[in-house]
Automatic annotation (TrEMBL):
Cross-referenced InterPro entries: CysZ/EI24
Keyword Transmembrane: yes
Organism annotation: Nitrospirillum amazonense
Compartments, record wording: Membrane
Transmembrane segments: 20-43, 63-86, 115-135, 141-157, 181-210
UniProt protein name: Uncharacterized protein involved in cysteine biosynthesis
Keywords per UniProt: Membrane, Transmembrane, Transmembrane helix
Primary subcellular site in the record, as a coarse category: membrane
Membrane topology: Multi-pass membrane protein
Length: 234
């Protein structure tokens, strides 16, 4: 896992990856703004009527609520954007670190779309379910990263794994290394909540999981990238 992190950071300024990071920045920023507009519209429906003392307070509280809720659900935005950037990130990472690999398997559009939709829906449902737990801050502070770390680890792993093996074999591999994938998901959740850095999180997290996947012996099927076979760091 440490190797995967270092290799991800070592390629952060690679021109091929920078181009994808610019796309990630634009897509994530636009999605965040859209999320803020949606939340703002919903909160605006709760605006009081005609009270000169209460209206300004609700306006300020509503603005703070927009920022807080948009930040809270930002993990969903990051996960959705990541699903659109898996292939260009994978090509850039494999071109530098694993040039000996054969072309990836021809994963169907349905496989990729199903993974993205399934986990985006799960993230929304889980985060809505966890939201009331923040009324008890210690409980919410524990439940939020644990739940999202579990889901993000699964999502990112499945997205990179199906490029190299069928979904059933990817599932077996995920179950075999579920502990490491869970901790990788916690790291991704943390990165996704860091201001500014989270705008590039879809690219960084995908590259990180590609390297992690490359270190797992395959559970049958096509072998993924292996650290020992990679090109020397340069």
């Amino acid at each position: 896992m440490i190797r995967a992190l270092f290799r991800t950071l070592a390629q952060a300024l690679d021109p091929a990856l920078l181009r994808v990071m610019i796309r990630s920045f634009v897509l994530t920023l636009l999605s965040f703004v859209a999320l803020g507009v949606v939340v703002s519209f919903g909160l605006d429906r709760l605006h009081p009527t005609g009270n000169p003392w209460l209206d300004p307070l609700v306006t300020v509280a509503g603005a703070l609520g927009v920022v807080a809720l948009a930040w809270y659900f930002f993990l969903v935005v990051v996960a959705a954007v990541a699903g659109m950037l898996v292939e260009p990130v994978a090509r850039a990472v494999e071109r530098r670190w694993y040039p000996q690999l054969p072309p990836p398997r021809d994963a169907s559009l349905w496989e990729e779309t199903a993974i993205a939709l399934r986990f985006t829906a799960l993230l929304i449902i889980v985060n809505v379910a966890v939201l009331p737990l923040w009324l008890l801050p210690p409980v919410g502070a524990v439940a939020y990263p644990l739940a999202n770390g579990f889901l993000l680890g699964r999502q990112y792993f499945d997205q990179v794994a199906v490029r190299r093996m069928p979904p059933d074999q990817a599932r077996l591999l995920r179950l075999r290394y579920k502990g490491r994938i869970f901790f990788a998901g916690l790291i991704i959740a943390f990165i996704s909540l860091l201001p500014v850095v989270n705008l590039f999180a879809p690219v960084l997290a995908t590259a990180f999981m590609l390297h992690l996947f490359g270190g797992f012996p395959p559970a049958g099927g096509t072998r993924g990238p292996q650290p020992g076979a990679s090109r020397a760091n340069s």
